[in-house]
Design goal:
The complex is a heterodimer. Chain A is mainly α. Chain A has one domain: Arp2/3 complex 21 kDa subunit ARPC3. The radius of gyration of chain A is 16 Å and the shape is globular. In chain B, helix 2 packs antiparallel against helix 3. Classes of the chains: A mainly alpha, B alpha+beta.
């Protein structure tokens, strides 16, 4: 019972911080910096879920985070969910091959994930959408990726701290959770 | 020594001691000029004083200059701070003036229009760069519903696609998911305007034989009573007729940049209002004038 409470607290805290950050990205960033590309603030959460949770749990957490973030975009929930779950899958597969503990790895994966997400979105858009993406926002993607890496460091510390607070232990070796 | 015996030398000395100053006093009273005997002394002391004075003036000047420099530095710092404050105030005032002009223009439009309009402020944009949506500070509590049109003085902005209690999300004209029923103002050819995800749009499902040329104004059809009839959407920038097919595709540039808006109107009820060409022209002129003012102010 206590464990369930801790897990729920962990998830609730993740969602609260995600909502705060995504709202900041959509509202405050625009008011202060206009159309300057913002960091993709939800990506580090999905990356964190993929890297530091068991696969099944990472999918569940990514789905929950997607639900929380989808209200801020016109993207259909199904497509956004599919994209984020695919992203989790790619990260998990990548982690099995190359992994080292620490924030640097997390930040690098965050930056790469922004580009990967955009490419997945582009591909899926051409596959399933009636009016697919025609404008490639390369500048936004690149700058978004760099800025996401920048916010990755403090977010890693924060999410790590939440995990410690709710007594979640981080795996330190690649694929440890599979054993 | 006898009482009446006088030492003449002493008497002369006394007379001289008393008499000389008296004589000098008397002489000075009579004349304003310096005594001739004193002239060398006054001249010498004057020269020395002047030399001292010049020297002290130089020292005082240098010291004063140094002290002034310190003061000037302080003063300069104060003036710079003051200047920055004034610049900030000027910026804020310019911002207020521009906002006032924009709001004034919106108010005039609202007063002239027969439509039931709800003014709203843009408070956010989309999470993803591949979608063009904005959030406004009005929701169902203020009477906003899904699919309501969103316009501004210059033209169509988009329509409501998601409503919360106090906020609503607007799908902009340039978003890929947007579809607006529109006509070519000149030839009345009808089609559907879609966004492309960039800064432009396109009009589809126009019959191949319809008359469309570059520069034509695309306006809303008003058939659904969501948008007022004849409200500007964009200008034709390209016409593509493929070798086969029944339709032609028209590229268009929106009359306004929907992603740079700060205030918009939600059309609660279009009341079947129709915009005539002359009225449109005056709208467009006033919008262009307003935009020009803003650009020149920046």
């Amino acid at each position: 019972m206590r464990e369930l409470g801790l897990i729920s607290t962990n998830y609730v805290l993740f969602v609260i911080i995600l909502v705060l950050l995504t709202s900041l990205q959509c509202s405050l960033w625009m008011q202060l910096l206009g159309s300057f590309p913002p960091p993709q603030t939800w990506i580090p959460f999905v990356v964190y879920a993929a890297l530091y949770r068991r696969p099944a749990e990472s999918l569940a957490l990514a789905a929950l985070l997607t639900l929380a973030a989808t209200s801020l975009s016109a993207i259909p929930l199904g497509l956004f969910l599919m994209l984020n779950l695919l992203l989790v899958g790619f990260i998990v597969l990548f982690k099995e091959r190359i992994y080292w503990p620490g924030s640097t790895y997390f930040v690098l994966v965050c930056g790469s994930s922004v580009i990967l997400f955009s490419l997945l979105h582009l591909s899926l858009s051409w596959m399933i959408e009636f009016n697919p993406i025609r404008h490639y926002h390369l500048f936004d993607w690149t700058l978004g990726s760099l800025l996401t890496m920048l916010i990755g460091f403090p977010l890693y510390r924060l999410l790590n701290w939440i995990d410690h607070l709710t007594q979640k232990e981080l795996p330190t070796e690649a694929g440890a959770q599979w054993l | 020594m006898n009482f009446f015996t006088f030492d003449v030398r002493k008497i002369l000395f006394v007379i001289f001691a008393i008499g000389l100053p008296l004589l000098l006093v008397n002489l000075q009273r009579k004349s304003e000029d310096t005594l001739l005997v004193l002239k060398p002394f006054t001249l010498a002391s004057g020269l020395v004083q002047k030399a001292y004075s010049s020297f002290s003036a130089g020292v005082r000047g240098t010291t004063g200059l140094y002290l002034d420099l310190i003061d000037i530095k302080k003063e300069n710092r104060l003036l710079l701070n003051e200047n920055q404050e004034l610049r900030a105030q000027l910026g804020a005032l310019t911002e207020l003036r521009l906002e006032n002009e924009r709001l004034n223009s919106l108010l005039q439009f609202k007063q002239r229009s027969e439509m039931e309009l709800l003014a709203a402020r843009v408070i956010g944009k989309d999470l993803l760069p591949d979608h063009n949506t904005i959030t406004i500070n009005r929701g169902s509590a203020q009477g906003v519903n899904r699919h309501m049109a969103v316009i501004t003085v210059g033209g169509v902005v988009g329509y409501v696609f998601r409503v919360e209690t106090h906020t609503a999300r607007i799908l902009l004209l340039t978003d890929r998911y947007t579809a607006i029923d529109a006509i070519v103002q000149r030839s009345r050819a009808r089609g559907i305007v879609e966004g492309t995800g960039g800064d432009d749009g396109r009009m589809r499902y126009l019959r191949r034989d319809e008359d469309v040329i570059v520069g034509d104004l695309i306006v809303t059809s008003g058939l659904d009573n969501i948008f007022p009839k004849g409200f500007p959407v964009g200008t034709v920038i390209s016409v593509n007729k493929s070798r086969y097919g029944m339709t032609q595709e028209v590229g268009l540039r929106p009359v306004l940049n929907p992603s740079s808006l700060e205030e918009v109107f939600v059309v609660l009820n279009a009341n079947h209002e129709e915009f005539a060409a002359e009225e449109l022209a005056s709208h467009l002129k006033s919008t262009e004038a307003l935009e020009a003012t803003e650009v020149s102010d920046l």
